[in-house]
Amino acid sequence: MAGKQGRKKARSTVSGPKKPAAAKPATVPSCKYHLSEESVQAVLNHKRVPFVLGDYFDDLTPEEQQLMLDVAAQHEQVEDRYAKYQERVRKELDEKGFVALPDDVDKRRAALNAASREAFRGVPEVK
């Protein structure tokens, strides 16, 4: 009898207190692909870069000025989207300990590579 009680006591002390959700250790991803540690750090370390029109802006034609303003607006949209992506990566890393990629990432990558090859067909490769 004493042996059973001793084992029960040992089991109860081995389990210890539960860790809070935010302190979850990295687990084996339940997804097929996940971001590498280097990629995660690159995303999290990205700092927003403001678009600078430059001192020459007033010397541009009205059409060139409008083009610069359009590019500046696109730049800000990209930075806004990246900030949201950065927050999603940070949240998923805190919750799961890794950042999952979609299971069809291979298919998406192949489509992107095909579109890129098509867009640059005929452009000489820089060596």
UniProtKB/TrEMBL annotation:
Keywords: Coiled coil. Residues 68-95 form a coiled coil. Residues 17-26 have a biased composition (Low complexity). InterPro entries: TRAP_DctP_sf (IPR038404). Residues 1-28 are annotated as: Disordered. It comes from the Eukaryota. Signal peptide: none annotated. Residues 1-11 have a biased composition (Basic residues). This is Uncharacterized protein.
